[in-house]
Amino acid sequence: MQQESQGKRPSAQKRVAVKQKEKSDLATKKPKLDPTGEPGTSGVSSTRKTRKFKVVVKKGNPKSDELEQMANDIDPSDWKKVARKLKIHGPKITAIHKENEEFYEKIYQMLLKWKEANGSAATWKKLYKALIDADLKELAEKHCCKKTN
């Protein structure tokens, strides 16, 4: 038994020595610098400018053709979540699901029914909020907003 524990001891010591060496190596490594001499960007120039746009929700009501375009971009796995955020409830969602075979058509019909049921209250602002609440920010900004400088 003593031999077994002695056999393990050198490997444990070796592991400790390796860890200490790794720590000292990390402490002596210098961070990569970008062309401007700033650490942390590893070769990406910080002189490149990015344009920022202010996002403004469109005014008014979406048209059917705009809803059609949006339907192409909503993922089939998200359409029921969007419907619930637009306050379309269970039985209507089930009916839309059963009446339409293709997901695109389910999504488009859901948006159309929302627009028809709400009339002038079916605004870009409400659609934007529903998409944001459904965690679809990119989609909301793409379809419900106009970009301004």
Automatic annotation (TrEMBL):
This is Death domain-containing protein. Residues 19-35 have a biased composition (Basic and acidic residues). Residues 1-53 are annotated as: Disordered. One of its GO terms (biological process) is signal transduction. Gene3D superfamilies: Death Domain, Fas. PROSITE patterns: DEATH_DOMAIN. InterPro entries: DEATH-like_dom_sf, Death_dom, FADD. The lineage of its organism: Eukaryota, Metazoa, Cnidaria, Anthozoa, Hexacorallia. Residues 64-141 form the Death domain. SUPFAM superfamilies: DEATH domain.
